[in-house]
Task: structure prediction
Amino acid sequence: MNFWAWFVGAFIVLGLGMVGWQYLQPATEVATPGHSMEPPDTSSIDTGDPIVAVNLPERLSTNAQIGKNVFEAKCAVCHGVNAAGQNGVAPPLVHQIYEPNHHSDGAFVYAAANGVQAHHWDFGNMPPIEGLTRADVQLVATYVRELQRANGIN
Result:
């Protein structure tokens, strides 16, 4: 065998060894204080009641106010007044799970356009929302982000 065959073989063996070593390491969780992607226990909340209490900002930006109007027309029927969620129906968007670093504004656009499979909450899949443009959903995201900031979610 020539030098390159040995080199490639050694590279593959080292790579497999590193993968095996990583696989055998115990799982560790990185915790951020006060931060959880786990949904809260809603068993004591009546079906249809808000899941979280939402503090409203003193005032909304112009785009957030437009987004609030769109939200109230298209989203509040499931996600509740001020995005507080409705137990057994849909989750609150004013929740740590939907912080910008975990669910970007693009995730809101995608979910409204395509629907989304349930993955954090047990309320079932979200269907696509008819009659909303990408710009409409961006305005809704602006509204939700301002609500989130007023509730300490950045």
In short: The two ends are 58 Å apart (CA to CA). The helical segments are 3-24, 62-74, 76-79, 105-114, 134-150. The first helix runs from residue 3 to 24. The mean pLDDT is 89.
